[in-house]
């Protein structure tokens, strides 16, 4: 594929977004890209794959790498997520370290700063997220606290959810990118496949409102996307996978109510992705102990 010629001085590069779970990394990625490329829920370890979001401006192309939250792993999946997050922070041009300014800096942030951020030799930008939840007077002490964690080229307080000062993050990143060519087509905003995008939307809707251990046991496979019997309708066949038989009943709900709600919530976003009306054929299947089974994790691409 031939890309559009770029002006002299054009910059491009890889930027990893790292931090502990639930600090708003995926929300920041979506806001920067201007499209939903990563699902978001209040549940820790929602992000399971390394997701790339692409921003192309007249002067630069930034390829953001959203990594799973680094946490104390309790399963093979958890260990693989940690390994993926740390591996993706190596060799990038700029590292963006996100902390939750509302809950404050904790031992998890300190661990990520010591073991991931400090080892990055290139430019490092710290982002103090969720400023919409605390006063402006509280920002300076938090900036001082973050500055003690590592040597940062910039520390920027933002609200990713509200888009406040997110442009400042983008400008700081571009300043520290090397000159280089386009890495992706300028029209691309992610490297995920259509099936992956749809599967993640379904998983996000399935995770909302579920009890305690169920969300972490959910995976989604999109088997087929086929033309429907009616014009401008596509049929999406997808399966929600769970680890235990008892979880099937929770996902399905009384007379299929929960499963219907998941489909109803997911359908509009899937229609946006496909650009057509959608009939969603959604099923639930037992995939026993998949989080601890290397072969099954491989089947799911994890």
Structure notes:
By secondary structure, the protein is an alpha/beta fold. It folds into two domains: 11-176, Rossmann fold; 194-299, GMP Synthetase, Chain A, domain 3, CATH 3.30.300. Helices cover 33% and strands 22% of the residues. It is built from nine helices and nine strands. It has helices at 25-33, 76-88, 107-117, 139-147, 166-176, 194-207, 245-252, 257-274, 294-299, and strands at 11-18, 51-56, 60-66, 94-100, 124-129, 154-157, 219-227, 233-242, 277-286. A six-stranded mixed sheet has the order 2-3-1-4-5-6, sandwiched between helices. Strands 7-8-9 form a three-stranded mixed sheet. A hairpin with a 5-residue loop joins strand 7 (219-227) and strand 8. The longest helix has 18 residues, at 257-274. It is globular.
What is the rounded distance between the termini?
Answer: 29 Å
Q: What CATH architecture of the largest domain would you give?
A: 3-Layer(aba) Sandwich
* Amount of helix: 25-40%
Strand content: 15-25%
CATH superfamily of the largest domain: P-loop containing nucleotide triphosphate hydrolases
Tally of helical runs: 9
Point out poorly predicted stretches. Answer: none
- The number of E-state strands comes to 9
Q: What is the CATH top level name of the largest domain?
A: Alpha Beta
CATH topology call of the largest domain? Rossmann fold
Could you tell me the radius of gyration in angstroms?
Answer: 20 Å
Helical/strand content category = alpha/beta
Task: Give the overall shape, derived from the CA principal axes.
Answer: globular
Main sheet summary: 6 strands, mixed
Topology order in helix (H) and strand (E) letters? EHEEHEHEHEHHEEHHEH
